[in-house]
Automatic annotation (TrEMBL):
Matches recorded under InterPro entries: PPC_dom
Pfam families per UniProt: PCC (PF03479)
Domain PPC, chain residue ranges per copy: 4-139
Protein's name in the database: PPC domain-containing protein
PROSITE patterns for the chain: PPC
């Protein structure tokens, strides 16, 4: 058993047609992870729905729906409910797009994902009035027991 402050590492491989966000949340639930985060990911997808960075001119966050073959260049974030993940994808010409994952990350060939957990910590989210989003809060597992 890992001690406080230590790191546990898990690896999983998702297959063609699986949805990454849903699969990761099921994995976290099944393993009962309290402070899960993405260490690394490689793979490819055929679909993605992303929220791009805030556009001050329109005061909105643009949502894009991608269809095609994309390589996962990077996947980062925390997997507590609700997950906060960002992804960077490259197309057939190597052009990249990245943003906040909303849904529909459908695996093309594979997604090899390594998940870490900070033992002794629990990640939760609380609404932050200054950002308008539920933001990360960390606590000791002994504080939440």
């Amino acid at each position: 058993m890992a001690g406080p402050g230590s790191l546990s590492v898990y690896a999983l491989r998702l297959r063609p047609g699986e949805e990454i966000l849903t699969s990761l949340m099921k994995f976290v639930e099944n393993k009962k992870l309290k402070s899960p985060f993405i260490l690394t990911c490689v793979g490819s997808i055929t679909k993605a729905t992303l929220r791009l960075a805030h556009d001050p001119a329109s005061n909105t966050n643009k949502i894009v729906h991608l269809n095609g073959m994309f390589e996962i260049v990077s996947l980062v974030g925390t997997l507590n409910e609700p997950a906060h993940l960002h992804i960077c994808l490259s197309d057939k010409d190597g052009k990249t797009i990245g943003g906040h994952i909303m849904s529909q990350l459908e695996v093309f060939t594979t997604a090899e994902i390594v998940v870490g957990e900070c033992n002794g910590l629990k990640f939760t989210r609380e609404m932050d009035s200054s950002t308008g989003f539920p933001e990360l809060v960390t606590s000791s597992c002994s504080e939440t027991a």
